[in-house]
């Protein structure tokens, strides 16, 4: 990452900030080293907050969505099925910029969108979906959640297909950005919503 604070020059121009946010999200979805490649995803379970780190897999600027991949057996999937409101939290410690995204999530396990995402996933990623145990299940001791034949590496393409039924995509609609720029010259905070398809900006107290 460049040490230049790329948001700095344009930090008073909402349109430029929005463009920068999209740029960062696009790169974050593609590059493992980008600070926005990992994102906190918050869900609600019976009124209680639940949060975990996931990998940002794709973002769609025109259609206003982002997505991650998950195991259909995982608690987060049941939580979203019961209550679709979610929040996503990004932080870039180089640029000291936080982005919070809120919206509703949909689950895609058997449709063409899930098929596309599965086809694009690496064999290494697919290995997780061959896990024998449900995430969060109590185990008799320290034990990795992988079948014995996959302890030392990713599956073959053929072997990986057994994981497909456990794979799903969590697709989050983007209803609101809450951008926060932590800066020694004073923090700035910008809200972006799309009430009629076009971005509407509000500066908020930071
Ligand atoms: C760096 C990192 C990246 C992760 N990426 C994902 C991911 O993309 N999808 C996922 O389901 N879990 C991912 N996990 C595991 C989740 O954080 C979480 O522990 C697991 O999915 C179970 O979550 P749940 O019990 O809330 O369903 C990741 C964990 C770490 C530490």
The CATH homologous superfamily is termed: Electron Transport, Fmn-binding Protein, Chain A
Largest sheet: number of strands, sense, barrel closure: 10 strands, antiparallel
> From the 3D coordinates, which CATH architecture would you assign?
Roll
Total DSSP helices: 5
Radius of gyration: 19 Å
Tell me which ligands are bound: flavin mononucleotide
Proportion of residues in β-strands: 25-35%
CATH class: Mainly Beta
pLDDT averaged over residues: 94
Task: Domain count, please report it.
Answer: 1
- The topology string of helices and strands comes to HEEEEHEEHHHEEEE
- Low-confidence runs (pLDDT<50, min 5 residues)? none
How many β strands by DSSP?
Answer: 10
Distance N terminus to C terminus? 25 Å
Structural class: alpha+beta
Helical amount: 10-25%
Shape assignment: elongated
**What fold name goes in the CATH topology slot?**
Pnp Oxidase, Chain A
If you had to describe this structure to a student in words, what would you say it looks like?
This protein has 5 helices and 10 strands. By secondary structure, it is an alpha+beta fold. Strands 1, 2, 3, 4, 5, 6, 7, 8, 9 and 10 form a 10-stranded antiparallel sheet that branches. The protein starts with 13 loop residues before the first helix and ends with a strand. The model has no long low-confidence stretch (mean pLDDT 94). Bound molecules: flavin mononucleotide.
Task: Chart the SSEs and their pairings.
Blueprint: H1 14-30, E1 38-45, E2 48-55, E3 58-60, E4 65-71, H2 75-82, E5 85-92, E6 97-108, H3 112-120, H4 123-127, H5 157-160, E7 167-173, E8 176-181, E9 188-193, E10 200-204
Antiparallel strand pairs: 1-2, 1-5, 3-4, 4-7, 5-6, 6-7, 6-8, 8-9, 9-10
Bound molecules: flavin mononucleotide (FMN).
Flavin mononucleotide (FMN) is lined by residues 38, 50, 52-55, 68-71, 74-76, 135-136.
């Amino acid at each position: 990452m460049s040490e230049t604070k790329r948001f700095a020059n344009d930090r008073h121009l909402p349109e430029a900030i929005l463009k920068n946010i999209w740029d960062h999200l696009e790169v974050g979805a593609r590059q493992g080293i980008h600070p926005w490649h990992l994102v906190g995803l918050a869900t609600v379970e019976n009124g209680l907050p639940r949060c975990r780190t996931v990998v940002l897999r794709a973002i769609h600027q025109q259609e206003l969505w982002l997505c991650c991949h998950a195991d259909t057996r995982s608690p987060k999937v049941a939580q979203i099925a019961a209550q679709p409101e979610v929040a996503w939290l990004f932080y870039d410690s180089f640029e000291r910029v936080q982005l919070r995204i809120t919206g509703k999530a949909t689950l895609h396990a058997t449709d063409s969108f899930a098929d596309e995402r599965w086809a694009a996933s690496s064999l290494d990623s697919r290995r997780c979906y061959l896990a024998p145990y449900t995430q969060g299940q109590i185990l008799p001791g320290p034990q990795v959640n992988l079948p014995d034949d996959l302890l030392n590496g990713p599956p073959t393409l053929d072997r990986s297909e057994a994981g497909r039924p456990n794979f799903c995509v969590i697709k989050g609609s983007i209803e609101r950005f809450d951008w926060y720029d932590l800066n020694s010259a004073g923090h700035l905070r910008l809200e972006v919503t799309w009430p009629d398809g076009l971005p509407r900006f509000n500066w908020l107290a930071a």
